[in-house]
Amino acid sequence: MGQVSTAAPELAAPEARRSPGPWRTAGADLLHNRSALAAAVVLFLVVLATLCAPLYAHHIAHTDPFQSHVSGTTVVDGKTVPVLTPSSTGLGLGVTPIGPTWDPAHYFLGADNQGRDVMARLLYGGRTSLFIGFTAALLTCALGTVVGVVAGYAGGVVDAVISRVLDVIWAFPVYLLAICLSVVLLTDGLHLGPLTVEAGSLWLPVAIIAAIYVPYIARPLRGQVLVLRNKEYIQAAVGSGAPTVRILRREVLPNVLPTAIVFVPLMTALAMLTESALSFLSVGVQPPDASWGTIIEDGLGLLYTRPAVTIAPGLLIALTTAALNVLGDGVRDALDPGARLRGGV
Amino acid sequence: MPDQPLLDVRDLRVSFRTRRGSVTVVDGLSFSVAPGEILGVVGESGSGKSVSMLAVLRLLTSPNVTVEGEVLFRGRDLLTLPDREMRAVRGREIAMVFQDPMTALTPVYTVGWQIAEQIRAHEKVSRKEAHARAVGLLSDVGIPDAASRANAYPHEFSGGMRQRAVIAMALSCGPALLIADEPTTALDVTVQAQILDLMRELNAEGSAVVLITHDMGVISQIADRVLVMYGGRAAEEGPRRAVFHGPRHPYTWGLLDSVPRVGGARLRRLPTIAGMPVAPGDLPEGCAFAPRCRLRHEQCAERPELRDFGGSAHRDACWLPDDDRAALRLTARAAATDVPDLEREATP
Amino acid sequence: MLQFIVKRFASALLVMFAISVLVFLIFFATPGVDPAARIAGRNADPATLAQVRHSFGLDRPMPVRYLLMMRHLLIDRDLESFVNRGSRVIPQIVQATPVTLSLVVGAALIWMTAGIIMGTAAAALRGRAADPLIMLVGVVGVSLPAYWLGEVVNLITQKQLHGSVFSWVPPPGYVGLDHPGQWALHLLFPWLTLALLYAGIYARLLRGEVVGALNEDYVRTARAKGLSERRILIRHALRCSLIPIVSLFGLDFGALVGGAALLTEVVFGLPGIGKLTFDALQNLDLPVIMGTVLYAAFFVVLANALVDILYARLDPRARHA
Predict the structure, then answer these.
(1) CB contact at 8 A, C117 and C123
(2) pLDDT at residue C321 greater than cutoff 60
(3) Is the peptide bond before A265 cis (omega within 30 degrees of 0)?
(4) Second label for C254, Cα 20 to 30 Å away, from A11, A37, A306, C3?
(5) In sequence order, what are the residues at sequence separation of 6 or more whose Cβ sits closer than 8 angstroms to the Cβ of residue C38?
(6) In chain C, what's the furthest Cα-to-Cα distance?
(7) How far is CA B106 from CA B101, B150, B186, C212, C237, in A?
(8) A252-261, B136-145, C42-51, C159-168: range with highest mean pLDDT
């Protein structure tokens, strides 16, 4: 055997590798999740398409989707045909609009019962639906987080009162409350002191949908804050005399933020479905605005003759909400590795 | 009478497939357990001691796991057994107890029901009889008022009681081998002593025990033989007295030295093993411990195998010269604590 | 336990009271709105308006108004619809209830069976090809707007394929239980439509719970005991996962019985509570709205209370909390 030395072991200097923070890790995880990526791409395409609505309407279809074209004509296969023809089925009353021509320049998906280009309306309607869905989701998540954190952290009477209010709101079957509020507010708008929202404004459905789902977000967040409050590091901060705002900002918020963020895509899907249901029932988006829900309702009268008017918006809603759900699952898996084991698609 | 070991593990290799490639957690481990013997398996976290035992019972169910080697139990290779036969081995011939008693039992069934479930899975007995046996087992492990406790739910038991119940359940079919993975780590010291007493009793009744722990103190109290693991490999193996009084592997020296002793030399600083435990993904080609070893030399670039010297049962995996390990140990210790001999108080 | 039940029901009553006040305020106290015009409906003449004002004490202070309405609704039980003159609210509700119950109970059976099977299968087969496929069905179920799906189903069964595959499908409407065959036939597609949405929700949820349970320590112990994978899956993992599922089911069922299935009822022409509520809302028939909303809230609150009590039975850990 050779000589053994007793020199100090030359330990390789541990690489001073700062581990990437939780947000970067989450981002990396999300990028590796193929179904979430696919969903994100689908969403991006849908949003892009709806943003291009004016482009489509003016430059491709050459039509104004908010104007009736009851007596207009269009060109199909080189021949000029009227957009609306007297109905030959049923009782012979009413009109049958032109069906899908699969020609982007001339009523790609056909016309509705007022002669409007369905495809163009779908794109414009998409903007409305996406706007309402996303804004309501952001509003709900923000409000729900604030309410949940306040209730969970303050405890005592404040918590009791807030929890009871949330219980009452949530005890109302969600859609019923939305319909009630819509019915009442849609005729005259909302006048709360200095705040005035016109009856036809899109902010009304946004506000209503956001309000009814606040308990959906606030309760889980409150539960999370309750658990956090008992953790040692929070108690240490309280004990060391740190001001409440600082504790909330530096200790509580970073822990609840991932949960709140996970809720955003899922809430958007939920809000879009709710808006479309309300619009379908005529208590959501009001004319002249259009959303996917109103288009479905418009198409009901034509369901048996021109089903495309009803089917297309429904498929778009389904596609968008499915993508949001898958993306939401992916975000949740990325931000909460424990939940990955319980992930979905 | 052939001296056939009860459990004979040969060249066990366990690797996980992760996003960064394949990670080897157990790297060519070989050891054996004789009937009725208590084997203490000791090592730091990450040394692969738990994973190797889980692999023995084929409890690693993730599809990303690969297990290779041979695990001979009573002559049969467990790794190649069909599922049904493996299920007959689990719980009946080999039983396993895990670290955290708080989560080990299903919360929605009573403790008696869960013990009876195990009995009825392996033996054809009626529910009444299985329940009666469960009650008997609970009282055997020292749970007072066993008859009514058997109808209680797991959350109604304290930690120590729960661990006893888990042990009672593990022994319900009279296994020849009990594997206990850190059974006392989650419990406080007084309860720990009681659990160890329990294990001694069980051993006296004939069960062999493999006790996994990172606590040298526990090993010194109860083990017949000791297996020291590092980096997924065996570092040293031998009878307890031999390993404790004449350890041969530098890692074992480090483990023993870092245990503070009453009545020893008064030290200014507790000796530690320099460096960090090797991560499973970073096993070096040669000796796993070499980066942290004060006595390493060129030979260490080649991986040492477990060898015994002169036919004794005490083996180690180290290239250091066989004869004067004790002296080498002193040299290493002096260098490690970095304290001149003058500053030490002479022991009375 | 008894104390817990009493407390729960007391709190439930409190919530019901709060809801009744909330509805009252929405319809009577929204600024800039004339309650009498709302109640009497859109085309009421001045005589009706005056009668409404007097009958509802609209010239009296608000708390009195509230008490009067509650008296009409709960004690005198003679609250009348002001759009369908003379027809009373409570009998309307009573008549509509069996329709909704038929729809919801049937759909619940279907969706729970389908959801549990799909979720458990996906969890057991996780990592293999079947898992994401099953979950895809789940995502689709959750994403389709229920009312739209109903319309498409109607389109296919009543029109497109009515001549061939679906010639046996009856027109939309409800047939009472005295003709069980027709009753079930009329409800078949409503059941399936409503169930698809909820099956998706429950399958996804259950899969998550079961996969989580399969990673718990107690499952590892069960495996070490030598139990078969199937027994572990069903008796240990599924049994523990069902606890949150059952809770959620209770809440959903309560909400649906109370009228949350209104879209399905409207689309399939079923005269249940949901449709009643919807029609009333369209006509601004406040007395009916008040009645149906309180009815709905009652069921939601009842379901909440029952679920809390049931939870304690299902999860031994909750009993001693």
Answers:
(1) no
(2) no
(3) no
(4) C3
(5) C27, C284, C286
(6) 82
(7) 11, 14, 18, 14, 9
(8) B136-145
Contact between chains at A9 and B328 (C-beta distance less than 8 A)? no
Measured between beta carbons, the chain A residues lying within 8 angstroms of C293 are: 172, 176, 180
C218 contacts B107 by C-beta, under 8 angstroms: yes
Using CA atoms, how far residue C41 sits from A287, C60, C282, in Å, is: 23, 21, 10
Closest of A260, A252, A283, A292 to residue A129, by C-alpha? A292
Closest CA to A288 of A48, A51, A125: A125
* Alpha carbon distance C32, A186 (integer Å): 12
Helix (H, G, I), strand (E, B) or coil at C321: coil
What is the identity of the amino acid at C181?
Answer: G
Q: Does A337 touch chain C (CB under 8 A)?
A: no
Nearest to A120 by CA among A77, A69, A75, A85: A69
Question: For residues A130 and A118, is the Cβ–Cβ distance under 8 A?
Answer: no
φ/ψ bin of B145: left (φ > 0), alpha (ψ from -120 to 50), beta (otherwise): left
Tell me what ipTM this predicted complex has: 0.86
Q: Name residue, tokens 């990670």.
A: B23
Compute the half-sphere exposure of residue B76: CA atoms within 13 Å on the CB side of its CA. Answer: 11
Do A9 and B275 make contact, defined as CB atoms within 8 angstroms?
A: yes
Which pLDDT value is given to residue C179? 83
Cα of A148 vs its chain's centroid, Å:
21
Tokens of A58: 């003016």
- Express each pLDDT in A197-244 by its tens digit: 777 788 888 999 999 999 988 988 888 888 787 777 777 777 777 777
* CB-based contact B16:B32 (threshold 8 Å): no
**What single DSSP character describes residue C175?**
-
Residues 155-214 of B with CB under 8 A from C: 155-156, 166, 169-170
Cα–Cα distance measured from residue C52 to residue C57, given in angstroms and rounded to the nearest whole number: 8
Residue found by looking up tokens 């800039």 in the block: C32
